[in-house]
Amino acid sequence: MEFITFNLHPVIAASITEAGYVTPTPIQQQAIPTVMQGRDVMGLAQTGTGKTAAFALPILHRLMDGPRGKVRALVVAPTRELAEQIHESFVTLGQKTRLKSVTVYGGVNVNPQIQSLKNGVEIVVACPGRLLDHIGQGTIDLSHLEVLVLDEADQMFDMGFLPDIRRILKQIPAKRQTLLFSATMPPDINKLAQEILNDPVTVKVGNTAPPVTVSHALYPVEQHLKTALLLELLLHTDTESVLVFTRTKHRAKRLGEQLEKAGYKAASLQGNLSQNRRQAALDGFRDGTYQILVATDIAARGIDVSQISHVVNYDIPDTPEAYVHRIGRTGRAAKSGDAFTMVCSEDTIMVRTIEKKLGAPLERRTVTGFDYTVPAPKKDAEFARPPREPRPARKQPAEAKKSPAGSINPFKNDHPGSRPAGRPQQARPGAAGGAPKTVFNSSRRGK
Ligand code: AMP
């Protein structure tokens, strides 16, 4: 199938070609014709599947006819970064349409947003809180709205935005087309979908399996050796852009600093940063100024950096769903990527839960030459953490509960068919202490 079969407006078709898209992704193949028919859509797709263009293209097509200067399409997204990314897709794919898009989110000066809205736009990409402010202040007119998109609905629910969403829904025309995208379908989102979608068509890709192009591996290691092991991995791996996940904002900041000290161009992205600094970190990661970005789940959600070659879970995620989301950052749009997860003995239950979810064991690897025997410093309060238990999951709670507590050891590979975890061949005390040579490719995969 090719894009031409959709019969999109010629100026939009031209931008698709310029963007370098040749073949529609599965979610695009399913969603674009359906949205063009004006149907409501329930889209089950995670980031990395091309879901943004799946709704942006038919919306741009629809807006080519009809009045200009009125807000006719509203996309609500959980994070500022995702809002910016969606806005950029509208700008790229709609560059020849003279349709205007604006982002509306908190943490930045409201006046430019008010001015843009006053000047007249057709597309608004918003986070819930600031959008409600604009509605309350009367600085946005949604009375001409034709299409509403709720993107990453499950994430908005996780972040406590559901009441805000319901408030927004009360302020917009009931007669509209509604598209709801979510990577997972927890009961609250299902309920919301049933309430707000009118005879929807469900489009679904990839369920919750990570992209097939990603190869996963676990790196068993003691908590206090994680940073040293990460440096060792970076030293011996041919990487492009690396996204590293930590459990907390504090750990993201600390690790970012440690990587910088070790000579890497690294930035951290966490909620405590001002919007300007967050954007600078993201832009720098996108344009290659930073080769490594350290982030928490919330900060990194939905980030589209198509050249990410490696995702490193410095800390194992809370849920199998979060694992799949994180891994989805690499191997995007059919590129291949690697995902490394550092695991401590406390992570045993979560490892088992993730493997159950994936339906396959994860390979255990050790880094040859790395000294796993270096004892913990007396006081390791900084990066120490309590054992990780699976969070009462939104999905498959029974499965998580059933996991035999403490029954596997991530250091021991008890799955047939995966590579045995050998001892390091030689001990190298302080292997990661010195400033590592940079082993990043200077060539980057095309954006
Ligand atoms: P998304 O899931 O919307 O975050 O998109 C993931 C990445 O795939 C983005 O970098 C898009 O620019 C890219 N992309 C979307 N659609 C296509 C396509 N049909 N062909 C190639 N790349 C695409």
Radius of gyration: 23 Å
CATH architectural label of the largest domain: 3-Layer(aba) Sandwich
Biggest sheet layout: 7 strands, parallel
First-to-last CA distance: 23 Å
Number of strands: 13
CATH class group of the largest domain: Alpha Beta
Strand line-up across the major sheet: 3-4-2-5-6-1-7
Number of helices: 16
Query: How many separate domains make up the residues?
Result: 2
Q: Roughly what fraction of the amino acids lie in strands?
A: 5-15%
Low-confidence blocks of residues: 393-447
CATH superfamily of the largest domain: P-loop containing nucleotide triphosphate hydrolases
Overall pLDDT metric: 81
Could you tell me which ligands this complex binds, including any ions or cofactors? adenosine monophosphate
Shape: globular
What proportion of the residues is helical, as a percent range? 25-40%
CATH topology of the largest domain: Rossmann fold
Describe this structure in words.
The protein is α/β, with parallel strands linked by helices and 447 residues long. It folds into 2 domains: 3-208 and 431-444, Rossmann fold (3-Layer(aba) Sandwich), CATH 3.40.50.300; 214-358, P-loop containing nucleotide triphosphate hydrolases (Rossmann fold, 3-Layer(aba) Sandwich). 35% of the residues lie in helices and 14% in strands. The protein has 16 helices and 13 strands. Strands 3-4-2-5-6-1-7 form a 7-stranded parallel beta sheet, with helices on both faces. Strands 8-13-12-9-11-10 form a 6-stranded parallel beta sheet. It starts with 9 loop residues before the first helix and ends in a 45-residue tail after the last helix. The structure holds adenosine monophosphate. Residues 21, 23-25, 28, 47-53, 304, 306, 332-333 line the site of adenosine monophosphate (AMP).
